[in-house]
Amino acid sequence: MPIKHDNQSITKFPSHFTWGAAAAAYQIEGAWDSDGKGQSVWDAFTKKKGAVWEGHSGNVACDHYNRYAEDIELMELIGLQAYRLSVSWPRVMPEGVGKVNPRGIEFYDRLVDRLLESNIEPWVTLFHWDYPHELDLKGGWLNPDSPKWFADYTKVVVECLSDRVSNWITLNEPQCFIGLGHLVGEHAPGMKLSLQKVLQAGHNALLAHGLAVQAIRTNTKQPASIGWAPVGAVHYPHTDSKEDCAAAMAGMHAVYGDNVWNNRWWGDPVVHGFYPEEGLRAYGASAPKVKSGDFDIIKQPIDFYGCNIYSGVPTKAGSNGKPEVVTLPAGSPHTHFLWNRTPEALYWGTKFLAEHYKLPVVVTENGLSCNDWVTLDGQVPDAQRIDFLRRYLLCLEKAIDEGVDVRGYFHWSIMDNFEWAEGYKHRFGLIHVDYETQKRTLKDSAYWYRGVIRSNGASL
Ligand code: NCW
Fold this sequence. Notes:
Elements: E1 18-22, H1 25-28, H2 41-45, H3 64-78, E2 82-86, H4 89-92, H5 102-117, E3 121-127, H6 133-136, H7 146-161, E4 167-172, H8 174-184, H9 195-219, E5 225-229, E6 234-237, H10 242-253, H11 264-271, H12 277-283, H13 294-298, E7 305-308, E8 312-317, E9 323-325, H14 344-357, E10 361-366, H15 383-401, E11 406-412, E12 431-434, E13 439-442, H16 444-454
Parallel strand pairs: 1-2, 1-11, 2-3, 3-4, 4-5, 6-8, 7-10, 10-11
Antiparallel strand pairs: 8-9, 12-13
Helix pairs in contact: 3-5, 7-9, 8-9, 14-15
The chain binds ligand NCW.
């Protein structure tokens, strides 16, 4: 459904809205075995033949570990107000538990200091998929001790950084590191387990989230703002009929038993303290075993509901009144990743989450991969990224205008990086990275985004 915008020159973004960009440790840092870092499951997975496109790895990536100061200068040039970084667990604790690697934690210490010097607020994600290999050998997320391991690591990070960091994100996209990592096997650790085991691992990840929130609250040196960053199927109505709008909302509420992309399966325990009835029915015998007291751990007060939203599913009311997915016409716009360009997802996704969870929402990721390159005149004219962002942000503005409490927006990503199983095939950045020379070039979208930030969205 096309969303119309009447008064584009007046910003609807609140005055304290946070404009940022995001990245993740394994995707940009490189330095995979420097200064005492332990291995992560991604270090191990990328060594497996055929696991990653063209055998790429994050061994060097953007060499951000050594070039972070230069990268922050570029962030400053773009005018970023906030930068969402992730901490590499095995860099800080090489074996995942026990010994802390001082040189590892010092890197994040320097990174945070350098960001603050540039007046950029650090938002720290504690886990963005680079699980310690040593702990994976002990069963990883399937081990009942895994939530405790994560809480102990969280305590170490919070003790070190919380005098300067107040914004925390526990887990990034559990649907992916559990689903793609343990069910489909396309991501590290590359397992193809039964749905029961997968959901048990997911349950442990939810417990880890809860214990981590407790660890942050107990150890923080200043009031903390805590959220998480799940992903999920965002349905949007095919037409603006009442029936299709209701069908889209119903699609987002639904819990299907044949995949792990459901929103409420993951979100309801975290916010409401139980798995949705519909999910328990749908997963049946595959549902995880829950111990008494588990939900008291999982359900911790959080301050915002983060969401990674890239693409939505057009949905109409089927003849039986149930949500029915609509196939987009041939030739509809899509990104280099073949994800459909569906800006309405940002309107409907944030609206659903804010209404269902009654929490402020932060868009912790949104963006697209393009086939960008540096032209002969040294520019990166990524007009499609600008148009994509403009469309998506106008839909976000519409949600805000209608009263949805959205507090921030983080573009994925600040720079091109290692796109997991896809290697370096996809470029998501505002900054182009030449992986041969490590030269950075600001794309046109970076200059455009600077204008959006400066005008608090009025330039959209
Ligand atoms: S692959 C993936 N990504 C990309 C990655 O670079 C980043 O680290 C992730 O947080 C970009 O953002 C995330 N996510 C998988 C999204 C799958 C969406 C499935 C929707 C289900 C209907």
